[in-house]
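Researcher: Good morning. I'm working through a list of sequences from a screen, and I'd like to move beyond sequence-only analysis. For each chain I'm collecting a predicted structure so we can compare shapes side by side. This is the next one on the list. No need for commentary yet; just the structure.
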Amino acid sequence: MKDNRALVNEIFILRSAACLSILLLHVLDRVYLDNSETINSFSVLLTFGTPAFVFISEFIISYSYRNRAIGSFWGNRIKYIFLPYLFFGVFYAAAKAVQETGTSAAFPEAFFTYTWRHILLGDYHGYFILIIFQFYALHLLFHNYLKKASPKKVIAGSFLINAAYLSFFNFVPPMDVPFADYIWTQYYWVPFLGWSFYFTVAFYSGYYYEAFQRLLVKYRHWTTVSVLLFGLLSISLYQLGVTPVASSKRIDMVFFTVSMIFFLYSHAMLLKRVPRFFTWVSQYSFGIYLFHPFFLAVFTAVSFAWQDLPPLLSVPVLFFSCTGLCALTIYLFNKLPFGAYIVGKVGISQKRTAQDPLKEIQAPSVKVN
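Model: Good morning. Structure tokens for this chain:
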């Protein structure tokens, strides 16, 4: 069986793939503007990124603490994950207020409204941080119980809860309750019930890590088959209008996302070394996730520079330009004394991880459409 270094390889691949899928999803939105049904169908599959980050976060915690006591837990996570959540919540609140009001007298009110909605409700793309912090708390509360419980029963129960929750908001129209439209449109994303299946699968995958690896080796070919079948199912449901929104919060995406995670992980196990590009993306994945909407908005503002390019060229131009600018910004911020508290830390490199594998497993920069 592989040692801890193999785990690092697989996490690098999984995290970078999740990050790049989200970036590509939003680049396609900017370039095609929902005018291509083919692209829209493909975009459905790219939404697996956020639940994959939820899986990664719990998987690493479960593996890291399976044979040792949980000591200092919150400090680094508050400093390098939650503080950036607050910063970006305020940053994007200001950007939205400027876009909406310009420099008029209405700016302070708009800024205040967006700020409290971003921070308290997760009403911007950083909402995933509220999700993983809920699971941090749940892990601390229930890890002893989960270690003793039957994995099959816990995973099955969490799936039923997750499926019932998403099905309710997917198929039941908004009820006659206050703020129903907002809850059905967006807020139902935030409570942990909509992500509980990923949490339990990740917990037991990390806690029974060697058995998890053996299963993936044994059923590697089936992970490929399941990705193709569930991917086709999700696209079909989208095109038929059964689940007409490209979102990770669809009941069918639960099956595709878990299949994709297992597919990527099992095939990453075949690699002796992760390609440098994926290692690099993994290091900056948290910052890329948080910063990329800003740079895409900048590219939209200067669309005259690329809008005449054919989409097959403009997509990679925006994709790689945005990736590079996000990474550069994170790198420069981390050169400042308190920069990491603002935008998060640069992740551990593969070289440093190989010297001390558990540094990567415990790093708060392992994060999370």
